[in-house]
Design a protein that fits this description.
499 residues, Copper Amine Oxidase, Chain A, domain 1, binds zinc ion, four-stranded mixed beta sheet, 12 helices, Muramoyl-pentapeptide Carboxypeptidase, domain 2
């Protein structure tokens, strides 16, 4: 079928519409087929089919959207389930961990046998106090024929001599006195320190088991696992003998009649008159432990006996050596030599340690106390050599000047007096000790035992020594209290006589 094109209409303004020469006339294009008349039913079917396709496409899109939403929520669900599982696993893990690190204590009892047969048992919390094995001494006494005299606060156990006429006043009677909640006991009239306080349990006195091994003859104590065997030892020489003896020098020393005070004249130094001295009531101190045996050491009757001032301006000579140096039981146990201080200072320090441990500070120990002139010299020379190694450009005098800022020159060290000690709970003396609770305890309590912090913070200009929270100096309670309350350093407190 041929299509006849109509002549182009002219625009009303008479202009011809511009038409490129030879441009194809779409209407004249033979490839653009003319509309065909179709019948109505055919047209309807096509439209219907198109509509259905459209609807199907719409349904597919809808289905895809729903699936996406389902997948999204599915993932959210999986995420939360995993989160929940992780939380459960974490909780179980924590529970197991804490359970593991702190298992419920199993009730254990310690069995005590006497001469191999009869036995009693004590629950572990009664048998061990502060890590020390205890025995029921009242029970032991009744089995071994000791006589108990006294009451709840103080109990005396007597070994009968077997001879009635000899039992009283003859001097041959042996006894031990335990005091409730006190580690001070008396063996044959001699005060001794137990490794833990005697405790009253019901009507029975429980005491550290090592009392038997340390102070009793004719009786042996052995421990195997949870069984403690206590038995008489029968020897050929003294059959069936039971006695209290002081097997070691653990006794609290009796006060010496006349103590050698060293060769420095303590009268050369007197306390500053501007500082009010404490009253007698100020000097009465109460402790957690029974330290009555130490009172004279902590608060010496001769108040000024220990007021020596040693520093860069007040030196001691090479020959000065105290004559009453005493071992310090609280020397750090790491292989170093047992440190020493003069008797009064050493005993007062012993009291300080008993109280400090009772207050819960058990890891402080003495790292250094008395140092001889020769030792201080070698120490000073070693530090000086280290300084010169660090900086080879230093002269000897310069290196010594640097060393002197942290280590005393020989003759200027208070350690040579035997009246001071370094104590702390660190690997090495360090100002970090000032952050420890034990240091706080010392700053609050050291004066009660007669000690002062010798090189306080803020007094560096006067002492010439930087803050040393570990260095404590014995001066006796009277002066320690005055110095503590006034917030002074020793240089400020002491005035050379005549000034
Ligand atoms: Zn020191």
């Amino acid at each position: 079928m041929q299509y006849n094109p109509q002549p182009p209409r002219r625009p009303p303004n008479g202009h011809r519409r511009p038409m490129a020469q030879g441009a194809p006339n779409p209407r004249a294009n033979p490839q653009n087929p003319p509309r065909v008349r179709r019948d109505a039913s055919q047209d309807y079917a096509r439209r219907k089919a198109a509509y259905e396709r459209q609807m199907a496409e719409k349904r597919r899109r809808e289905a895809r959207r729903k699936r996406k939403v389902q997948i999204f929520w599915g993932r959210v669900l999986v995420f939360f389930v995993i989160l929940l599982l992780l939380a459960v696993v974490a909780c179980v893990g924590f529970a197991l961990y804490f359970n593991h690190s702190d298992p419920p204590p199993e009730p254990t009892t310690i069995r005590y046998t006497f001469n191999g047969d009869d036995s009693i048992s004590l629950a572990e919390d009664k048998a061990y106090l502060g890590g020390v094995l205890y025995v029921d001494f009242s029970d032991l006494a009744s089995r071994f024929g000791l006589v108990a005299v006294g009451g709840a606060d103080e109990m005396r156990f007597v070994i009968p001599t077997g001879d009635e006429t000899d039992s009283r006043g003859s001097g041959s009677e042996e006894d031990v006195i335990f005091r409730r909640d006190s580690d001070l006991s008396t063996v044959n009239g001699q005060d001794v320190r137990l490794s833990g306080p005697a405790v009253l349990h019901g009507e029975h006195y429980l005491v550290p088991a090592d009392f038997i091994t340390e102070y009793m003859d004719g009786i042996a104590l052995t421990r195997e696992g949870n069984t403690v065997s206590i038995a008489r030892t029968y020897t050929d020489e003294i059959p069936d003998a039971l006695a209290f003896t002081l097997k070691r020098a653990a006794a609290v020393d009796p006060l010496p009649e006349d103590t050698e005070l060293g060769d420095i004249d303590p009268g050369a130094i007197i306390p500053s008159t501007s500082v009010p001295g404490p009253s007698e009531e100020d000097l009465v101190v109460t402790f957690l432990t029974d330290l009555s045996a130490y009172e004279e050491y902590m608060n010496p009757a001769d108040r000024n006996a220990y007021l020596i001032l040693v520093n860069n301006d007040n030196t001691v000579d090479e020959t000065h050596k105290p004559t009453d140096l005493t071992d310090l039981a609280d020397t750090r146990k790491d292989g170093r030599n047992v440190q020493q201080m003069r008797l009064y200072a050493a005993k007062a320090l012993e009291a300080l340690y008993i109280e400090m441990r009772a207050a819960g500070y058990k890891d402080v120990s003495v790292t250094s106390a008395y140092r001889s002139y020769a030792y201080q010299t070698s120490l000073f020379n070693m530090y000086t050599a280290n300084e010169m190694k660090k900086d080879p450009s230093l002269t000897l005098a310069q290196a010594q000047a640097i060393t002197a800022t942290y280590s005393a020159r020989p003759g200027t060290s208070e350690h040579q007096t035997g009246l001071c000690c370094d104590m702390h709970n660190l690997g090495a003396a360090d100002v970090a000790f000032a952050k420890k609770e034990a240091y706080t305890w010392l700053t609050e309590n050291a004066w009660k035992f007669g000690f002062i912090l010798r090189f306080p913070q803020g007094k560096e200009d006067i002492t010439g020594i930087s803050f040393e929270p570990w260095h404590y100096r014995y001066v006796g309670r009277y002066h320690a209290k005055a110095i503590h309350d006034a917030g002074l350093c020793l240089e400020e407190y002491l005035t050379p006589a005549g000034n």
